[in-house]
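The data are passed on as follows:
___
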Amino acid sequence: MTKIEDVIVPSRGTGKYFGIKCLQIDIAKNTPVAPSFYWHVKTEDTQLVSDVETVVPGATILDGNLSMTAEEYSQWGTDDSYVIDWALAKLGFVEIPE
């Protein structure tokens, strides 16, 4: 999960974590590849781990789907952080460096 600046959803809470998963990449000859993704924003929660209170992602308060264009996909390369940065920019969320 990627820590982000607070995303406040009045009826649901404050999101602090962002996650994204690739749903599909259709592979076909002579057809532009355009993968789709599922993204979600989670609240922050605490959990007891070996008698130590630990901060962990909580409930999902926002989610949706995104699709890359063939041009965006061609820039992906081998570093998956590209996808996270791309999605955060598309959605207007800001990562908090750890």
